[in-house]
TrEMBL record:
Protein name: Citrate synthase
Organism the protein comes from: Flavobacterium macacae
Superkingdom of this protein's organism: Bacteria
Keywords: Acyltransferase, Transferase, Tricarboxylic acid cycle
Gene Ontology cellular-component terms listed: cytoplasm
Catalytic activity: oxaloacetate + acetyl-CoA + H2O = citrate + CoA + H(+)
Family named by the database record: Belongs to the citrate synthase family.
Alphabetical list of SUPFAM superfamilies matching this protein: Citrate synthase (SSF48256)
GO biological-process terms attached to the record: tricarboxylic acid cycle
Hydrolase as UniProt keyword: no
Catalytic residues of the enzyme: H306, D363
Pfam families: Citrate_synt
GO molecular function: citrate synthase activity
Length: 427
């Protein structure tokens, strides 16, 4: 691979360095482009632009490969637990048994939420979407934890990681409890992280609650599959907000808002609503496939397509297999799953989808499992956020520790040229 790239503009030639990543990804470093040429690049949606170098996640969209810190998603999902993978994603190495035990112990130091946070959640209407409540509560954590993180101080950074992992899980479940009119639960420091998620969500003061181990294991795997995904929309948002040196809670809060969109993390909820609509209208998957192909119809096949994956999303493969296993173990026969499989089968042989390399993504099957686990549809994206939290933390930490510059893209102005002010009487 050549070490430089040559750009010719207005008869002049300019040379720019080329960098090559661990997996031979090639990038042209245009740091000096504007000062050298006076020109900038433009790339709506940043489809061809790298925002940073990162050591956290590698994905190959053509081959359908996903690795966290060099470990394949298949091996991690098959052998590790969510806190273990969170530690890996955030700190860069798989923890020893002692380090993992200490990590869980240190998270437990911060699982209590300031009681005054309840005044904030009380202000929401019951039908408020959980993602909007979560984004607000996450930002509100700053009010009760105002000390900014000195990212240069490893101990302070570690404590901020543990605090965020602890408090985010609890407030995420409070969004559901609020919508149900249930009392808000407290984390039980004698139980595991994912088991606590189920308790925080479903335990009622009227009787004992025991989380189903099959459900806890399935959720643990789902959280692993969502833990990070390089510079996706919400992670890029967390980096962008954090690049102004806004705090970690404020940056994560912005990431929650970005994830909420139906083109991003909100797709898991949109997939279930789409499948339910297909079921309600007679289950004719092919009719909806035609709608998705019709340029005059805004309908898209939710859970299909991806900015980077032009092959199967490796997470979708794992989730599809888990869906079969979990529903069988729980004895759930959900016709929605059959509609999803029919939709997938038809799309994978349809020229429109094949020519555009549109495959099922992580959101296509996850909602089916969540529904089988008793998770309400409008909480699906909250679960995505819980899974993605370690990735957001890891990427924010990497950006700050690497002293990345504040994010401030350029633009090409296409509005009116200079013109004189026009007084009212002449308008
Ligand atoms: C996530 O980036 C990440 O890593 C995200 C994520 C993560 O872990 O963080 O993986 C999680 O967000 C997964 C994606 C979830 N979103 C959806 O399932 C929503 C449905 N998908 C699409 O909206 C779309 O595929 C996107 C948004 C995911 C990707 O859009 P792109 O890369 O901008 O692609 P595009 O819109 O330019 O589409 C290219 C072509 C277009 O047709 P033409 O103009 O070439 O004729 O494919 C078509 C699109 O119309 N197309 C679809 C489609 N997705 C793309 N047509 C019908 N149904 C779809 N779902």
């Amino acid at each position: 691979m050549s070490k430089t790239a040559i750009l010719e503009l207005d008869g002049n030639k300019y040379e720019f360095p080329v960098i090559v990543g661990t997996e031979n990804e090639v990038a042209i470093d245009i740091d000096k482009l504007r000062s050298a040429t006076g020109a900038i690049t433009i790339d709506p949606g940043y489809k061809n632009s790298g925002s940073c170098k990162s050591e956290i996640t590698f994905l190959d969209g053509e081959e359908g490969i996903l690795r966290y810190r060099g470990y394949s998603i298949e091996q991690l999902a098959g052998n590790a637990n969510f806190l273990e993978v969170s530690y890996l994603v955030i700190f860069g190495e798989l923890p020893t048994a002692k380090q993992l035990e200490q990590f869980e112990t240190d998270i437990r130091k911060y699982t209590l939420i300031n009681e005054e946070m309840k005044n904030i959640i009380d202000g929401f209407p019951k039908n408020a979407h959980p993602m909007g409540v979560l984004s607000c509560l996450t930002s509100a954590l700053t009010a009760f934890n105002p000390k900014s993180v000195n990212v240069e101080n490893e101990k302070e950074m570690y404590e901020a990681v543990c605090k965020t992992m602890a408090k985010f899980l609890v407030i995420a479940t409070w969004t559901y409890r609020k919508s149900m009119g249930y009392p808000l639960n407290y984390y039980d420091n004698t139980k595991g992280y994912v088991e606590n998620f189920m308790r925080l969500m479903f335990e009622l003061p009227t009787g004992p609650y025991a989380a189903n181990p099959t459900i806890v294991a399935a959720l643990d795997k789902l959280f692993i599959l969502h833990a990070d995904h390089e510079q996706n929309c919400s992670t890029s948002t967390v980096r962008m907000v954090g690049s102004s040196h806004a705090g970690l809670f404020a940056s994560i809060s912005a990431g929650v808002s970005a994830l909420w969109g139906p083109l991003h993390g909100g797709a898991n909820q949109a997939v279930l609503e789409m499948l339910e609509e297909i079921q309600k209208n007679g289950g004719d998957a092919d009719k909806y496939l035609e709608k998705a192909k019709d340029k005059n119809d805004p309908f898209r096949l939710m859970g299909f397509g991806h900015r980077v994956y032009k092959n199967f999303d490796p997470r979708a493969k794992i989730i599809k297999k888990a869906a079969d296993e979990v529903l069988a173990t729980l004895g759930v026969n959900d016709p929605i799953l059959n509609i999803a499989k029919k939709l997938e089968e038809s799309a994978l042989v349809d020229e429109y989808f094949v020519s555009r390399k549109l495959y099922p993504n992580v959101d296509f099957y996850s909602g089916i499992i969540y529904r089988a686990l008793g998770i309400p549809t409008d909480m699906f994206t909250v679960l995505f956020a819980i899974g993605r939290l370690p990735g957001w933390i890891a990427q924010w930490k990497e950006m700050r520790v690497n002293k990345e510059p504040i994010g401030r893209p350029r633009q090409v102005y296409t509005g009116p040229a200079l013109r004189e002010f026009v007084p009212f009487e002449k308008r």
